[in-house]
Amino acid sequence: MRKPLSMAVFVVVLSVLACNAPQPGGAAISSTATPATAEPVTVEVPPTPMIMCTPPLCTADEVYYCPGDCPGGCGTGCATPTPQAALPSAPTIFSFTADRTAIVQEGSILLTWQTGGGSEASICWVTHEAILTCVQDPFDPAGGTVTITPSGPGRPGVTEITLTVRNSASSAEASVEVTIECAEDPLPELEDQQMYANCPYGTVAGTAAYQPFQDGTMLWLQGNGTIYVLYANGQYETYTDTFREGDPERDPAIVPPADLYQPVRGFGLVWRTNERIRDGLGWALAPEAGFQGWSQSYSGVGMHTSGTFLRSLDGTIYVLSHFGAVWSVFTP
User: Which one of 35-39, 141-145, 191-195 scores highest in mean pLDDT?
Assistant: First the structure.
């Protein structure tokens, strides 16, 4: 049980307060008193009233329309919503056909198609050089015909031709396969060559000439009228044979060293009129010799993989790479 403060204690407390009370015209008597700390003031803010609104009854084809953000007010009217256009369905290809299933290289085929729901279309295939090629002329995506000349992928090979029909929703595809046969057959010595996978072209066989030089070789094929200059450093050049019967066969003012020769006729004309060839080949080691030669060209996959096989007098087959103009000896 608490005991009440005695009168003496009460008097002491009052005395202390009186001592610390400020005097008229001056500061408090005690210089060691601690100043009082101000209490924070809390201001009561009344809540923002929520404005409630009851939407009216709208008909089946209307929605309640509220122009403002609640709270702050709502409208009380109904509005007809703006209809959103439905996305079209995917296009449909009813038919896509070719008038034949096999052609010879450089041959043409007729394509026919019929579709529905498309806004644009394309017809594409991949060439033997691995290049995607498409019909360039615009055509009706709904249906029609077009004639194309696809290049084959190999020897022989199957080319896939694809029709793609599109609209804003999606696309649809259909394909036909066409076998493309080679227009030329590989020469017997090249039937198993793996350097170039595509059909041969530009085959030439017949009368040829050969002449060795100090730093290279010259070869000539009558069938294509071409002179091949093969330098010892692995580079090669080709020239059109412009020599005609009745032209000077040699230059008597040019005297070769002992046991060496000035080339004559077509070889001589190229050699005499081109300082780079003279410096690159040097003098001929022997007179030119005739034989039965051939050449056959190929292309591979890609734009820079093509070359020509060239048979020489002794049966050596050279590979002339068209990219970089370099030659090497072909080993089956």
Answer: 141-145
Q: How far apart are CA 205 and CA 189, in angstroms?
A: 13
Contacts of 273 by beta carbon, 8 Å cutoff, 6+ apart: none
Six-digit token string for 19: 């001592």
Q: Which CATH architecture has domain 92-181?
A: Sandwich (2.60)
Q: Which amino acid is at 185?
A: D
* Cβ–Cβ < 8 Å for 116, 91: yes
Residue identified by tokens 């896939």 is: 160
- For the record, the structure tokens of 116 come out as 């529905």
Name the token pair of 286.
């022997």
pLDDT tens digit sequence for 283-330:
999 999 999 999 999 987 666 678 999 999 999 999 999 989 999 999
Domain boundaries, the chain: 92-181, 188-329
- CA distances (Å), origin 167, targets 81, 87, 89, 131: 27, 10, 9, 26
CA nearest 113: which of 130, 131, 127, 93? 93
Contact 20, 30 (CB under 8 A): yes
| Residue 214 CA neighbour count, 13 Å, CB half | 13
Give the strand pairing for 102-104 and 171-181. Answer: parallel
